[in-house]
């Protein structure tokens, strides 16, 4: 059978496009950080495409519903947004995004403040995916690692999937403060008071933060937390400690320079690992559209298309 030959010039051109997109995306991320520092979170965080050069995966929409009163010291007020999901009337949770500037010292001191800057695309895709797979969470103890400022995926599970209990966790204390305000508001409006929910500070690898949850969690949710490869070992250890036997961890994240694949390889030493590229027909359809016209959409699958990884803790 004759082997198909590829045009080296085409391969070279494609590589140049990918390199150019990575450089452009890197510049854009620094621009959005600068925008947060100088203009505040409200200007940067809630809009798809405002920080990533393409307006893709419009699965969850955020609409401003309330602006808190300004503070006496002149600081900008915070804004509440209602999240709604494409094709579903089930989701009506509200999240709070601080409009004020992030102190530069906080970014430097915190191990990872990216969750305190904005809602990343993978978080919205994870929330949408959870809504399409409600039985996975019904009656389960669910914990979200790296919930960031909003815990959007966890809130969607709490409001639509009837979990037995829910934990929203993050290593940044500012995120926990905001999550507690969000939980209090949604408790009175959209989430059953019969579901125990807690926001708690949890740093990966620090067992004292989650010792009382060891072997207690049925399902863990994670979105876009694999890019810091020096944190992979602590993240894997934390997942292993938290999960029950046969418990599952669902991770939505882009490949991003093979960080996804590297974590999968690490996790495979103890977990049963599955990873899927085509895990939802709607998301896949959008992906193929962007892929066909990647120049038009400034679309780089390595950075923009989240993959699904499923970790299962063995019963033995």
TrEMBL record:
GO MF, any single term: calmodulin-lysine N-methyltransferase activity
Entry keyword annotation includes Disulfide bond: no
InterPro entries linked: CaM-Lys-N-MeTrfase, Methyltransf_16, SAM-dependent_MTases_sf
Keyword match Transmembrane: no
Principal subcellular localization: cytoplasm
EC number(s) from the headed UniProt entry: 2.1.1.60
GO BP terms: methylation
Keywords: Cytoplasm, Methyltransferase, Nucleus, Transferase
Domain of life: Eukaryota
Cited SUPFAM superfamilies: S-adenosyl-L-methionine-dependent methyltransferases (SSF53335)
Subcellular location(s) of the protein: Cytoplasm; Nucleus
Any single Pfam family the record assigns to this protein: Methyltransf_16
One GO CC term on file: cytoplasm
Listed name of the protein: Calmodulin-lysine N-methyltransferase
Species of provenance: Tetranychus urticae
């Amino acid at each position: 059978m004759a082997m198909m030959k590829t045009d080296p010039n085409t391969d070279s051109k494609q590589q140049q496009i990918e390199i150019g997109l990575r450089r452009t995306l890197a510049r854009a991320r620094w621009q959005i950080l600068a925008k947060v520092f100088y203009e505040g979170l409200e200007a940067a965080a809630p809009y798809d495409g405002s920080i990533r050069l393409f307006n893709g995966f419009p699965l969850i929409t955020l609409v401003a519903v309330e602006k808190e009163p300004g503070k006496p010291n002149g600081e900008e007020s915070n804004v509440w947004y209602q999240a709604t999901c494409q094709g579903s009337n089930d989701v009506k949770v509200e999240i709070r995004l601080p409009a004020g500037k992030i102190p530069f010292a906080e970014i430097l001191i915190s191990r990872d403040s990216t969750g305190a800057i904005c809602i990343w695309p993978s978080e919205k895709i994870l929330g949408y995916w959870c809504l399409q797979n409600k039985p996975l969470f019904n009656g389960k103890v669910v914990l979200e690692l790296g919930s960031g400022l909003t815990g959007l995926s966890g809130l969607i599970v709490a409001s639509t999937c009837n979990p037995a209990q829910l934990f929203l966790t993050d290593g940044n204390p500012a995120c926990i403060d905001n999550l507690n305000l969000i939980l209090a508001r949604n408790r009175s409006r959209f989430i059953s008071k019969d579901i125990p929910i807690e926001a708690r500070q949890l740093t990966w690898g620090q067992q004292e933060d989650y010792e009382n949850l060891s072997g207690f969690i049925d399902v863990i949710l994670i979105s876009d937390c694999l890019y810091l490869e020096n944190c992979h070992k602590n993240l894997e250890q934390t997942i292993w400690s938290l999960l029950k036997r046969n418990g599952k961890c669902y991770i939505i994240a882009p490949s991003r320079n093979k960080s996804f694949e590297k974590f999968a390889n690490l996790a495979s030493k103890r977990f049963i690992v599955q990873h899927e590229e085509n895990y939802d027909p709607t998301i896949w359809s959008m992906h193929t559209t962007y892929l066909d016209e990647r120049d038009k959409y400034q679309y780089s699958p390595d950075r923009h298309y989240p993959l699904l990884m499923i970790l299962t803790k063995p019963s033995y």
